[in-house]
Each structure stands twice: as structure tokens, then as C-alpha cells.
Design brief:
seven-stranded mixed β-sheet, single chain, globular, Rossmann fold, 7 helices
Length: about 220
């Protein structure tokens, strides 16, 4: 069994970027945890921030249930204001040492949203710090993550170093994403990502629908 942790800036980024891969991990019997940096409280003008955060956490739980993921962590940073700071860094280091993942998924460093960029920076730094015998304020024993993969959401990757065939899981991925009703009622992310995954499948020749990643670190996949 492989342990997998997905870091998502907002609820639904995990599904857009690697929902098919998540479903595949679950089918393979791997242990999956999804960590949301924010609860997406800035994602609509129709609700107050408090109302929307509750709605989006419920949507995330419903989507995860469809994929078969039971372990969700909500860090509840303010949406749109994720910061690279001590508090977030320590939380992520603690999580890595607690969950002891073999594989981590994060947004790529050039994804065109500040929260995505900061999530990338925080987790990359935390991966390095979690592996060493330093930082007394952090809990747990050192843990070295074997593989770190970067997914695409707002900005397609320019350089691809790993391709996952998700053809078998594309409908499950879209069904899960469609649980995020508060988001797709304004922007059809479900249509956009299905088109991107089809494009990736055609252009890579690896499957009908594919998710593409940049490899930052690799041990086993």
C-alpha cells in the first residue's frame, strides 16, 4: 500500500488537477489524504464568507465520498491570502511526518493563482524540512517523501514529465467535480478539465483521457 497526500489550495483544485489519479489510487488500495489550504470562502459573491466556507467543505466531502476518500484535512487559511509563514510551514511539516506519504501532489509553481503558487512554495519547503532532524517546534520523526508531482489547474504545464492515463476514471472524476455546485454554476470547470484531459490524452498518446504532471522528485509511482 502506498500513502498519498494531495495538497489543494481550494476545494475542487484537487479534482481538477488530479481527480482521476486520486480515483486510481483508491482503486489500487492506496491510502489517500486530501489537505485543503483554504475552504474557498472567496469563491462566490452569492454567500457570506462563513456560509460559503461551510458549503464548500460539504461539497468537498461529497466529492471525496464519490472517489472513496475518507481522510480530509481543512487548514482554513483565508481564501486568496495563503501566506508562506511559520504557522503554515509547521502545520505542513507536522502533517507530512504524521501521514508519512510516499507520494505528494501539489499545484505547479507557475499556476496562475497566488494561493496555488504559495501552496507550492510552502509544501516544497516543508518536504525538505520534514526529512531532516531539525526544527524542534515540529512534531513527529523525520520523514522523506519519495515522489512529488505537480498538477495543472489554471495554467497548463509547459513541461510535462509524467502522464497518467485516467480514461477508466474520467466519468467518476467529473461526477465528483460536479458536487462543487457553488463553483460550476458560475464557471464550467467540469467541461474545461474534461477537455484538457482529452487534449492531454490525444497529444501524449498515453490514453483517451490523461492527467499530466511535472516531477519534482521521484522514487516510486
Amino acid at each position: 500500500m502506498i500513502k498519498v497526500v494531495i495538497f489543494a489550495p481550494h476545494p475542487d483544485d484537487d479534482l481538477i488537477g488530479c481527480g482521476g489519479s486520486i480515483a486510481k489510487h483508491v482503486k489500487q488500495g492506496n491510502e489517500v489524504t486530501i489537505v485543503y489550504m483554504t475552504s474557498g470562502d472567496a469563491g462566490s459573491l452569492k454567500y457570506s464568507k462563513q456560509e460559503l466556507a461551510k458549503i464548500r467543505e460539504i461539497e468537498a466531502k461529497n466529492a471525496a465520498e464519490i472517489l472513496g476518500v475518507k481522510d480530509l484535512v481543512f487548514l482554513r487559511n483565508p481564501d486568496g491570502y495563503v501566506e508562506y509563514n511559520k504557522e503554515n510551514l509547521v502545520k505542513i511539516i507536522d502533517l507530512i511526518r504524521e501521514k508519512r506519504p510516499d507520494i505528494i501532489y501539489i499545484p505547479h509553481k507557475s499556476d496562475a493563482h497566488k494561493d496555488h503558487i504559495k501552496t507550492h512554495e510552502i509544501v516544497v519547503e516543508a518536504v525538505g524540512r520534514a526529512a531532516g532532524p531539525w526544527f524542534q517546534e515540529c512534531k513527529g520523526k523525520p520523514w522523506s517523501v519519495g515522489t512529488v508531482l505537480c498538477y495543472e489547474v489554471w495554467t497548463p504545464l509547459q513541461e510535462i514529465s509524467y502522464v497518467e492515463d485516467i480514461t477508466e476514471f474520467i466519468e467518476l472524476k467529473i461526477k465528483a467535480l460536479e458536487q462543487h455546485k457553488s463553483q460550476i454554476q458560475d464557471i464550467e470547470y467540469n467541461e474545461a478539465v474534461k477537455g484538457l484531459n482529452r487534449y492531454r490524452g490525444i497529444m501524449t498518446g498515453k490514453g483517451k483521457y490523461c492527467e499530466c504532471f511535472q516531477v519534482l522528485k521521484i522514487n516510486k509511482i
